[in-house]
Amino acid sequence: xxxxxNWIDRAEQCVMKTYGxxxxxxxxxxxxxxxxxxxxxxxxxxxxxxVNNLGHCHPKVVAALQEQAGTLLHCxxxxxxxxQIELAEWLCEHSFANRVFFCNSGAEANEAALKLARxxxxxxxxxxxxxxxxxxxxxxxxxxxxxxxxxQEKIRAGFEPALPGFTYVPYGDLEALRSAISxxxxxxxxxxxxxxxxxxxxxxxYLKAVRALCDEHALLLIFDEVQVGCGRTGxxxxxxxxGVEPDVMTLAKALAGGPPIGAMLARQPFADAxxxxxxxxxxxxxPLLCSAALAAMHAxxxxxxxxxxxxxxxxxxxxxxxxxxxxxxxKDVRGRGLMLGMELDFDGGDIVKQAMxxxxxxxxxxxxxLRFVPPLIVTENEIDEAVTILDDILSSLxxxx
Length: 401
Description:
401 residues, alpha/beta, Aspartate Aminotransferase, domain 1, Aspartate Aminotransferase, domain 2, seven-stranded mixed beta sheet, four-stranded mixed beta sheet, 15 strands, globular
């Protein structure tokens, strides 16, 4: 029995089957590379689903974790935590926000945003305003609250009834959004670029128009930047590309360069709606994770990593566009920065499997969109290597010209 099969068999006996896992047993990572238990090397263009923006085991993140682990791992949020304060200061200084709430994941950050929106709106406008408009094809998390906010029926399937208070409209359709606003609406929640929904980019001017609608109707504008934040789309925050600021923003995934942390950022007066006792998180903002996040964010903006992501995003986009021109079954290439999707006219699941066999890790979302989210430290040579593998696979398909 192989080492991989041994681990797979053991997992079958004790790990819940909430994922359709591939037969890859990962044991080590460095930069844009991942190695399995057999010693096979992979070029990682999934990056933990846009988590490892700095690559695997970035030295500054590792050093921060090691130093903090020997000093203080955890203490209660009943007390002041210096690392948490420093991280909150950094996030506020580099965004629209005045206050930050820390938690453990993107779903928790989105739950906090939804609670804030309802609490603020009820305090200011009465109990009748509680509904949140979100987009079809959106993804906001896996809790009961965030699957209710998610505009995909397959995510809610089996967990009905969804929580009341959510309305879904087509992403990018301003008139549909305008028509959905009612006396019950308290907020609009959108991803500046949809990730799980197929790497969907909003039409020009759409988010600015949404901001104007929120101002007109006194609604909170919430941007879910769990996947698209922290440099993924070419700017520190995706909203910066649109020239529009939200009232609330949620972060997670790449915030600490790998370790789990989430954050909800808000500006005044909205942030004050969550006072003592209204919300909390036992582990949120603990010293260990905040130290990692501080190291990750400083490295991102001070070490040229964000700039590299912009250059490599344009380079990868050019390579994928060339494949689109070559193969008629590629319907579209879209995205921003190093968050790119290639839409096929057939299911892409088998291509993901073949790529893994050839040492390239990607994934497929909504069935037909291959998603490329490599670390922002990726090089031209690594992009060339990945595209060569993909080209070899595509050229072998029956649909290939």
